[in-house]
Amino acid sequence: VYIDGLGNKADYAGMDLNGKVVVIRPDVLRREYRRATNQVALCDGGFGASPRSRGSACYCVNLYTGKTTRFERRDILGILKADQIPKWAQQGLQIYEHSKRSIKTQSTERS
What is the H or E stretch that residue 50 is in? Predict the structure, then answer.
């Protein structure tokens, strides 16, 4: 399922999920975690994030809490387009990207 701004859905099986903002299926979460703040995440890696990989693990960063969680590729409902990402998730994405950049600059300074 690929979620675009019009509510249309298309198969995302052949898409690379790395670096994409994804929506986690609510049925894989416990009832108390079935809200948008726990379902919108940035897919940051894993063999399942690659389209034709044998693996199924996708490591996702929750854009509300910043915690990394492992999901199966089948647990992902779809991909959010950039214009559909909620403001709180955009802020979380900016914070995550900023922290990732600062870690890279620290590691290059040590080398």
Answer: none
